[in-house]
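2024-03-11 09:14:02 INFO queue: dequeued item GTPase HflX, len=438
2024-03-11 09:14:02 INFO validating residues
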Amino acid sequence: MLFERPNSGERAILVHLDFHSEDEREDSNEFVQLVTSAGGDPVAFITGSRQRPDARLFVGTGKLEEIRQALLANEGELVLFNHALSPSQERNIERELQCRVLDRTGLILDIFAQRANTHEGKLQVELAQLQHMSTRLVRGWTHLERQKGGIGLRGPGESQLETDRRLLRARITSIQARLQKVRKQREQARRARRRAEIPALSLVGYTNAGKSTLFNVLTTSEVYAADQLFATLDPTVRRIQVGDVGPVILADTVGFIRHLPHKLVEAFRATLEEAVMADLLVHVVDCADPERHDNIKQVLGVLAEIGAADIPLLEVYNKTDLIDVEPRIERNEQGVPTRVWLSARDASGLALFYQALSEILGSEVCETSITLSAGQGRLRALLYGLGAVLKEELNDDGSQCLQLRLLESDWQRFLSNESVSEASLHSTRPVSTQEEFC
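2024-03-11 09:14:37 INFO prediction written
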């Protein structure tokens, strides 16, 4: 008979193993950050090395005894593994140690549960937790093995375990239906933005890279930002003004992490679609992190998983203040900005960031000069309303020469709405020097 699990505590024994396979390796420093972000108190850190995990206990019997002794010596209340454990491995380790065991996935889910504030975020976390729990119902709870019976309790012969599984499936189906409604609402908002032809940017990056700090500086918002993993979970969308481009939608998304559990990727698909549907991804990188190259690889892997690998990307190397590097823009062979070095904390390099956005998003900005007759004052007023007029000169015959700069899409929409052609406006494009004006 399995034991009845005691109440869980916060004094944690941390277990980290190094494996020969690169795909199974985890970062021990990041593990400690995850535990402290969850509110745990690491009282012992046990490390080891194995060729491959043990099928039954994940660790060997000698390492298991070392964990047992650490529990007794430090009055530990739970054991946290920096690895994904199978349901049977969790159950077997709990039976041996007589305390609660949590793997890396369960730890990340716990942090997400603490961080979720919006209704959508709570639904997404609950869905991921239920999906994770559905494979672990039998661990540690003896009442789930008992059959219903007794006077007044004899039913169709359904066990408590089967009942709980059925209730879980019903709840998962209900949450998925509600999240589908959220997805449709987000899609409607995105369609409205696309109709208005407002470019959409999405901040992505490894957790704790400074995305929310950069978002707050750019939008003068007060999104929660702290030096901890997954400080912000719920997505936030704001509008900013970018040079010649005009209004731009900026979305702050959940941070990524190495080996992000697939259940979380699925549960947060409605949120991550903000990245999938963006016109430009702003990949925020902690340039002071010695693991930044591996972190970049992990982020690109998640972007590929959610179908955002082909979206144009601008790298932002944040936290230059920590490594004493001057802000700058790096460009590719065509002169297009590919990376901006800045510090969101002291706002240095933000002008360069805006410049890079203007160059990338403003690639379809057109410059032209037109001549309007004295009777075309309405067209002149509309162009001023668009903020497209750079310079105006009055001719001797009363006509006006206007030098314009605006998005190509706005220009074509203007011509279509007013049923005029460029030829009728005596357009000469492009205007490259001051002498060519009119």
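2024-03-11 09:14:37 INFO annotate: Residues 373-436 form one domain.
2024-03-11 09:14:38 INFO item closed
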